[in-house]
Each structure stands twice: as structure tokens, then as C-alpha cells.
Design goal:
Layout lengths: L9 H5 L48 E4 L10 E5 L2 E3 L2 E2 L3 E6 L4 E3 L7 E6 L4 E5 H9 L5 E6 L1
Antiparallel strand pairs: 1-2, 1-9, 2-7, 3-4, 3-6, 5-9, 7-8
């Protein structure tokens, strides 16, 4: 929780470095943002003879973090694609407190009107905008805090 709101969404994923085989999986293969860089190592130190891209910032992540997800709230958003917002306005980087009555929809991204959401119960679903809104209302939280890189 000490990382919440610090503008370093990537650190929520860095704590899992021992569980993930590579940081490459933290960038969507269809990522449209040219600023996003696929990291090749979690290690900050590496041999200069082997060109590596260290996992060192929000530019190494395509996914948001649901900072209030717990195993007591299995339908809470744990993580997912970040291209959602209200009307045609996508949420930008940072911590967003979003009430469940806000009409969320996919507004940009590579998946043509759908996106992937990982839930606190460990499941992942690909949702269209109408299902995204339904799932958001069913999180068990009145306000969802989502940190977007």
C-alpha cells in the first residue's frame, strides 16, 4: 500500500519478479503506445556485453493495478488492459478513484472494443464495454482505486 499514488504503477508488478519468468509479459503484444518499452530483465545490473532493457518504469507496463483488490472481494479488478474511460476520454496515468456508477467503456487500445480484466479470484475475462460496466458494478467496492501506468 505504500506504493499507492506514488506514480510508480510498475512497482506493483516489480514485487512479483520472483514469480514471473520475464518482464516481457507485462507489455501487451498489441500495445499501441510507442513510448512503451518491453523490458528484458528485472535486474537493474547486467553485463554490458548483453544488451538488456531493465524493468525500471511505467513505460515497461501495459496494465493497470486494482489497488483495493483482495481475496475477500473475488470480483474486484486486480489488473487489466488500461484503455478504458468515460465516453471517449481514456483515463491517463496515475491513481484514479472511480465509483461503480461511472459508465466505463473501452475507448482506445488494440483490442477493438474489448479488453482483458484479471479479477482478484485469479480469473481473467475478455469483456466488451457493456460487460466491462457490469463487471465494474459487481466488484463489491463502492469506489475502485485503479493505478494506471
Amino acid at each position: 500500500m505504500e506504493l499507492v499514488g506514488k506514480g510508480q504503477a510498475f512497482m506493483h508488478f516489480a514485487v512479483m519478479s520472483n514469480e514471473l519468468s520475464t518482464p516481457k509479459i507485462l507489455v501487451c503484444p498489441d500495445e499501441p503506445n510507442p513510448q512503451t518499452k518491453t523490458a528484458t530483465t528485472f535486474s537493474p545490473a547486467f553485463a554490458p556485453a548483453f544488451p538488456q532493457v531493465p524493468f525500471s518504469g511505467n513505460s515497461n507496463v501495459s496494465y493497470f493495478v486494482g489497488v483495493d483488490a483482495t481475496d475477500n472481494l473475488p470480483q474486484a479488478f486486480l489488473s487489466g488492459d488500461r484503455g478504458f474511460g468515460v465516453e471517449q476520454n481514456a483515463f491517463g496515468p496515475g491513481l484514479h478513484a472511480i465509483s461503480t456508477n461511472v459508465p466505463l467503456r473501452w475507448v482506445k487500445g488494440p483490442h477493438k472494443g474489448v479488453g482483458n480484466i484479471a479479477f482478484a479470484d485469479g480469473s481473467v475475462q475478455q469483456l466488451a464495454s457493456t460487460k466491462l460496466q457490469e463487471a465494474f458494478k459487481s466488484t463489491g467496492l463502492a469506489t475502485n482505486r485503479l493505478e494506471i501506468p
